[in-house]
Amino acid sequence: TISVIADTKQPILNQVKNIVCIADSMRGTEFSEEAADTFKMISENEFIWFDLMFRPAILLLFTGEIRRVSLEETVSLTQLMSRIIDYRSSFTAMHSAGVAASAMKLGELTGMTRTECMMMKIAGNLHDIGKLKVPRSILEKNGRLTDEEFNIIKEHPYFTRLILMGVDGFGKIADWAGFHHEKLNGRGYPFGFGADELDLGSRIMAVADIFSAITEVRPYRDGMPKEQAIKVMRENVSSGAICGDITALLLDHYDEVDEARSSASREAGKRYFESLDRR
Description:
By secondary structure, this protein is mainly alpha-helical. The protein has 2 domains: about 1-45, no CATH class; about 70-275, Orthogonal Bundle (Hypothetical protein af1432), CATH 1.10.3210.10. The chain is built from 15 helices and no strands.
């Protein structure tokens, strides 16, 4: 029934209220009272709608034989993929590189193994792969997004995780990459997970994503200076969004983490502008 009601040409989250109202009007006829109540309850979870609309198609696209490669080869391949993701827009041309470097450094500081740190880097490189579905007009909007536009943005972590779950051996990486907008207080998106469901890697990725986003240079603004960035990170801890322990590690080693981020971002930026010159 939902697949009939939903318009596949429109963002699904922009249709939720209407679909729920239509479904509720079928209470006692098409649906039992119990089924209607259950549907209304689960409809509050955004990822459920993405599952209903997209999972079968995505799984068809990303199945097949995958050649076994080393972790080092995988890192190199995902660095290339991160450029494809980021180079769609000058607004995000250096973002994934910065997140990957920050996440790997934070992994080292938390005592992760070398393998886990490399997995963090892979997750950072690919955390925004779901944005390939987001229109450039939204990615490059210089101003506040409308609710409808933000609903489209909310899809990208879901697609990131769904795509990466289709890669053999990427289970943890898919979670770490796909949960980067989740918050410990349960107010993130699209899964609405809380502290109990977010492991160390997921928490690191959330911290790395925010830190990179506020400190990197973008066409419409400079990166935040150290004092302001520290203030913003602490505010995110106070609100219950991100892990206090990981953030404390970041702030204790601020210059070290920021150098890793900025170095990776500079290299990505250099490659981006070289690619523009070749066009």
